[in-house]
Amino acid sequence: MTKRQLGLALIALALWASVGILAVDVLDAGQFQGIGPAQQSALAIAGGVLLLGVSLLPLGERPA
Amino acid sequence: MSAHTPPRRAWQTAVLTLPRLLIALALLAFIGYFIVYAIYAVRLFQFPFDYDQGEGFELMDTLLFSQGQWPYRSNASYPFYSSNYPPIFHLAVAPLVWLFGPHYWTGRLVSFLGTLVTAVAIGYAVQHVGKRWWLSTLSGLAFLASNYIYHVGPLFRQHMFMVMFETLAVIGVTLAIEREEESGKRQTGRLLLVMALLLLAGYTKQLAYATVAAVFIFLFLRRPLRAVLWAVGFAAVTALIFFWINWATDGMWLLNTVTANLNPFVPGQAVGLFRQWFGLHVVITVAALAYALYQLYFERLSAYSIWLVLAVVNGVTAGKWGAGESYFATAIAASCVLTGIAFGRLLNGAEKRGFMRYAAGLTLVPLLLLFQADRLFHAPTDIPAFATVARTLGWPTAVMIAPQTSCSAPQPARPVPYVDSAGVSLLGRPPTPADTAAGIAISELIAQGETAAFSEDAGFNLYLGRDVVTNPTQLLNLYNNNAVDLDEMLSMLDRQAFDTVVLRAQFYPPPVLDVIGQRYETTDLVEMNNFVYCIMRPRDLARSD
Asked: In chain A, what are the domain boundaries?
């Protein structure tokens, strides 16, 4: 697997996780109205993973 | 200082005196921690009752396995006992129970030995890359010096045995892939061994799933198709064992190891433990994460780096009710490996770039490890030498702690001769002869009656050779998941079928505590391990009415 593929995988993981975190509100499964503190933390982590993934894209075909 | 150090000139030897002294000091500090750890372990081996809540139930699990019985049972009928842990650790201890009987030292010894194996494995992994004996030794000893490993390592708990299998598996996969890439030959046998170690880790404690994921992600990064094939096989074997145990226990395995572990998440507990873990292990954590980031951008990711990241992320589960600091043990093991390798590579690189850079690196590394040693300070100060060390380093020689009183009136704090940079801890203070005497006193109070005690600790009934009745935290977990029928238990308590009730932390489900309060009254208070135990006897109902 290459660094670029790993970056894409991390981006996909972050986006998928973000959708899941926000879906908690759609399904009304959270304890808070709106985005709760745990969701905010999880979204921040997902954002970090997204940035990490983006930063790997320029590394191209080097092995991960 | 390395295996291939060229001859040096006199001034260079003189310059290296300071780093050598610092390395000697670092070794002294971490060997000191090892001595502290060994003393704590030996004193725990000598203590015949529960030190940590839950130890007695793991002994009970072992006892049942040694008798050829499953500990995954119905909680609805007498003795209302079941276990929520997988079997490997208890099976490993069972031969000692066959030979010597159901003693606490059996499992404590096995767990302690497991931590030593982990430390040696960490040292081996670091030595394999860095080839510096002192750095490899310090990396292994740093694991044992962690406050968390110290607290939990010599307890009759399965957690550190899981960490041992995890560490061996990750080192095993690293060596297997390294050999495969060097020789071009498949290492199927070695990978099978890694799978066996992962299976053992998972069937020691469920938390090993993070390490399983780390190993398969590593394999996937190297050869995706092979990783998928191995993962399918691994999942199939894991599932087969799972469903076989579930079939053999009539569904009690699934109920007690899965349903009973769906506990509420306490965010404050998770955040507090994350902060404490990072503060205590700051050097090895920052060095390990920095090295993992370096690998991410500048070379190939190692299994250790992936393991570290997943173990740290999995640390969030420490916020689950019933979880705690030990959930960071895997991250600590991974940090020790990566830090040792990072420092080794740093020194090897510096050595090639000139003597002064090498000397600077050789000074910096032990200094950082000495700083780390200071962050981890813990010592039982009832031993005069340790009290002197604590005083010299500016630590107090005692900590004021109030006895834990859940079922009796609060008591004022009093000095406890144990100092720990983790703060006030219920674990770590070696038990004393007074604690043993207190345990015997509680057992003698139970022995005045005819029946087994309805006790939150298993140790007293085990000491008397009576039935172990209930596993309170397990009951509470099942109760919170609406998965237990308490009718028979409540009926027996209501009929005062137990001559004695022993409470320590009131972990029983509320309806159980209610009926105990109605039908039993406290007659004696006995303090053991800084906990005040309430010994309760049946109320005189005619008088009460």
From this structure: 3-59
